[in-house]
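Quick log. Single chain, no ligands specified.
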Amino acid sequence: MGEIEEPNITELVDRIGRIPLCTDDDYDFQKLEILDEMYRKSYEIFNEMRSKCQLCDVALVVESRKLSAHKVILAATIPYFRGMFTLDMMEASMKEIKIEDMNYETVDALLSFAYTGELRISTSNVQSIMLGANFFQMQEVVQHCGDFLITRLHPSNALSIRDFCKLMNVDRNVTNKTEDFIQKHFTSVAKDEDFKKLSLEDTVILLDSDNLYVDSEEQIFNAAMEWLKYDKTRHQDAAKILLCVRLPLLSPTFLSSAVATNSIIKKDIPCRDLIDEAKDYHLLPERRQFLKSFKCCPRACQRIPGLIVAIGGLMHQSQSKSSVEIYNPIQKKWSSIEGVTTLRTRVGVAVHKRQVYAIGGFNGQDRMDLVEKFDYDTLNWVKLSPLNRKRSALAAAFVSNRLYVCGGYDGNHSLSTMEIYDINKNIWEPGPPMENQRSAAGVTVLGKHIYVCGGHDGMQIFGSVERLDTESQQWERIPSMIQQRCRFGAATYKGKIYVAGGYDGTSFLKSVEVYDPIEKEWAPCSAMNMRRSRVSLVATNEGLFAVAGFDGENNLCSMEQYDETTDQWTISTPLTCHEGGVGVGVIPMPPHML
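-> predicted structure:
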């Protein structure tokens, strides 16, 4: 047999002609998705060629050692070299380019990343890699290094990591996370040497933050003094530092025994003036509105999770209850702790630091004047001075170191009166009465104001709202809610006031409203999943929680959580032994203690 001739491709194509397909639509196509694999294989070959110095046209000289490369690859993967080689810079025609102020290992690692897309980041090389990537304008690498540092945050390095990330122009999300960590672990961070080395400007910004997690303002003062003592030249700035401490939140005893006697402060006239003003805040309440030097609101700790504590309420047989439950938002679990000494429901609850106050209430027969305090650190309840007047369904809230109780029901009448508790003296004093008698109202705090919303006077249910300026001790009206309601929950979250559930005289409600203090108007939110009268509403870092209540037929043990970003309520973990109208508060707690 003779040899078989190979077919002529052109002749074959001509013979076949155009293949008839089912459509002439040029937009009917399938995309060949092999680019990622093709690029990967191509760059593997490029890297192999680099290692063998094949077709390389440039060398990077680092610490007297050379790294061969291809200009086109460098220009495609490293912005620094793209500018160098495409903008007619002197180096564009050079065969060797010297890289200063970087070690060989760093440049080698970044060059390998440019060819392979792989980079090993470790605690030993992350800073040098980050510096090199920043120099070469490899922002993606800089960002990954910043993300790596976030996973290694510790009180001993948090300030350094924050400052380094800012220097490297890392994405704001990374620096925000370092700021959050510093705020949450402030007491530990303040003990580190890096804190003492902060500039005056950075120290003022940190100490002035609303979101520092501290047990008391005394910890802020002590940290401020440690910073001042570190360098004698800082003493001239003592007043600037002392202004960051919210002196009115310190007890009069601490002001006199620790602040006024401090060796740095007592030598500084502006500091002594600030102390006198803080003392006036305690001694002359009527002048508080004129004392403008200090912030007087407690540190907000807005991003700190909290333990939700539920007190009183009802048992399954609708009897008053004495047990107490605590909800851990990290574990999403309720657990029981030491109960109050007496059965009660419709109790007022307020939290100061890590101490929970249970005020008044109803034991199934009588309204109560009993006041108890639970210390989370010792897990003990202590009885305090009783109210001047028995009351249930009352409003209770802390502002600074003072507990305000207003309204409620004494067994005969709804009340407009207010009582103020001094935690240092353990005594109750009368406060300015509200304009309306209000029982079963919603209460919350925003800044220096206590907001009391809705409620009833035994004859009618209110939609009106009044607020107390705790500095001037004056009540004022603000816009009414969209819907009148009593026996509902109220809470402050992200600078706005939310009200949820309740009873309007004919219906048990699941509707929710939010008040914007800047716009001075109420707006509806998504309704809860269930109707809830006698519901408690609290805010934590995780969102808003509506706890227990009554739906018109049954006492509820369920809980719902609100996400304001989606405007949605979801059913959350139910209480284990409570129903009905529990009193609820939030104990601030750092994440590592949950």
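Confidence is low (pLDDT under 50) at residues 315-321.
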